[in-house]
Design goal:
about 260 residues; alpha+beta; eight-stranded mixed β-sheet; five-stranded mixed β-sheet; about 30% helix; globular
């Protein structure tokens, strides 16, 4: 059952409500396929996809398209539909497909609204955990109806650093900076995807980073992190979902994290 939300003061309250409902519907669809015998196909970039991903995206597109017929939609599996409103929904039906396929519950349904280039609504539903995070510009961030806040930590020595994949091959030329950040940090844990960003938004970890990031993985996360008092940016510090990489942390840790990654710590 969806929890009653606190009063939302954002200009995007209606959009957020529909995004939450759509994400929960898609989450129920995906959850029905979770830990079942799934046929896994591999896309051109060797990433996996299943009937659960495709069906969840169709669910999202139907709900969002019915409510907002003039908005565009960009999704991981089914491409882009152009709109006429200057807005588009950016969706990832299952973020963490590898987790999903392996029966690990740390996967999510991501729904975001981009208005004239700015991500103003984000929903991250974690159906197998019974947890949903959401935010709209100016309205705060919430987890299951409770306000979400980033950690009060002010030093990297106290920080937990999260990654999805810590292999040197995955990091490429960013590996040295990552190693330097780990050297400054309190501890490092793995198994990230959207769950890592959810932990940062709720103060359960301090820094989540991805050296490789797609816009549909980042769009829902950015407004949630920002409304929770955090900073979301690419590895060069630019506050964008199109930088090809991602960092999330409390605003107080932005400069130390960037210094460590850039080798000037």
């Amino acid at each position: 059952a969806m929890l009653a939300a606190p009063p939302m003061t954002s200009a995007y309250a209606d959009e957020l409500g529909i995004a939450r409902t759509a994400a929960e519907q898609a989450g129920r669809f995906a959850l029905a396929h979770f830990r079942t015998a799934l046929t896994v196909e591999y896309k051109a970039d060797r990433s996996p996809v299943t009937i659960a991903d495709r069906g969840a995206e169709e669910t999202l597109r139907a709900a969002l398209g019915a409510a907002f017929p003039h908005d565009g939609i960009l999704g991981e599996e089914l491409g882009e539909t152009h709109g006429s409103s200057g807005r588009r929904w950016i969706i990832d039906p299952i973020d963490g497909t590898q987790s999903f396929i392996h029966g690990v519950p740390l996967w999510g349904v991501l729904v975001a609204l981009e208005d004239r280039g700015e991500c103003v609504v984000g929903v991250v539903a974690l159906p197998a955990l019974g947890e949903t995070l959401w935010a709209a510009r100016g309205g705060g961030a919430f987890v299951n109806g409770t306000p979400a806040r980033v950690s009060p930590a002010t030093t990297l020595a106290d920080a937990t650093i999260l990654t999805s994949d810590a292999s040197p091959r995955h990091f490429g030329d960013k590996h040295a900076g990552f190693q330097q950040l780990l050297g400054c940090a309190g501890r490092h844990r793995g198994w990230g995807d959207c769950y890592g960003y959810a932990l940062v938004a709720t103060g359960r970890a301090e820094v989540m980073l991805d050296p490789l990031m797609n816009p549909w993985d980042a769009a829902a996360v950015k407004p949630i992190i920002e409304e929770a008092g955090g900073t979301f940016c690419a590895w060069d510090g630019a506050p964008t979902i199109y930088g090809g990489s991602a960092l999330a942390m409390p605003a107080t840790l932005r400069d130390p994290v960037l210094r460590a990654l850039c080798g000037t710590a």
